[in-house]
Write a structure and sequence with these properties.
The protein is mostly helical. About 50% of the residues lie in helices and about 5% in strands. The longest helix is centred in the middle third of the chain and has 19 residues. It comes from Panicum virgatum (Blackwell switchgrass).
Length: about 210
């Protein structure tokens, strides 16, 4: 290492602001803008691969919805369990989802059909609620793990043990979880009861 550069086998490793790891995009500043954008593009890739079926009026609507819930939405929410989401991230996810749902329903925004009507018709819960469900499900796994369990990828710390450093810190995953618990009026005390926790965080499809 010379002058702040990192060398490997004589070659200088180029410094970047983002790094892709196990399907997720890590940013130098700790934000998730690039990761959210990457996951939305992954969802659109799945959409394009199946557009012949999803845009075919002869294919039953029920089958299209099932395909979306089992293939496209999981591609968008991959790795979202630890996302410290902000309002703009949720908005980006919601916009992308509604575009997909409207297209395979044969509607555009010019038709002035409300989002709630589209969701009821296709039987798909809002992606922001599914995102919260994913995060709280992961939180439950973390809280129920044995204290001596190994930490994987640095994200299995208990929320109660995470401390904030000096200065104004960025939104963290544990703060997102605390916000979710408050918004959904869920007590953290039931987390050790797997059945009760699963029922509390369940988001049924319309």
């Amino acid at each position: 290492m010379r002058g702040g550069d990192v060398s490997l086998d004589g070659q200088v490793v180029v410094q970047k602001d983002t790094f892709r790891y196990l399907g997720s995009v890590l940013q130098k500043d700790g934000d998730i803008d690039e990761d959210v954008r990457h996951r939305i593009l992954a969802g659109w890739l799945k959409w394009r691969q199946a557009s012949v079926i999803l845009c075919d009026k002869r294919v039953p609507q029920k089958l299209k919805c099932k395909f979306y819930r089992t293939t496209i939405r999981p591609a968008i929410l991959y790795g979202a369990e630890c996302w410290p989401t902000k309002r703009r991230h949720v908005q980006q996810l919601s916009v992308a989802e509604m575009q997909m749902l409207r297209w395979f329903c044969g509607h555009t925004r010019r038709d002035r059909v409300r989002n709630e009507v589209i969701r009821d018709r296709v039987g798909v819960a809002p992606i922001e609620e599914k995102l919260t469900q994913h995060r709280l499900k992961w939180f439950g796994h973390v809280q129920r793990r044995p204290l001596e369990a190994p930490v994987r990828n640095g994200v299995l710390e208990r929320v109660d043990n995470i401390k904030r450093g000096r200065g104004r810190a960025k939104l963290t995953c544990d703060e997102s979880v605390k916000r979710d618990l408050k918004d959904w009026n869920i007590s953290k005390e039931i987390v050790l009861d797997r059945s009760a926790w699963r029922l509390a965080i369940n988001v049924p499809e319309p």
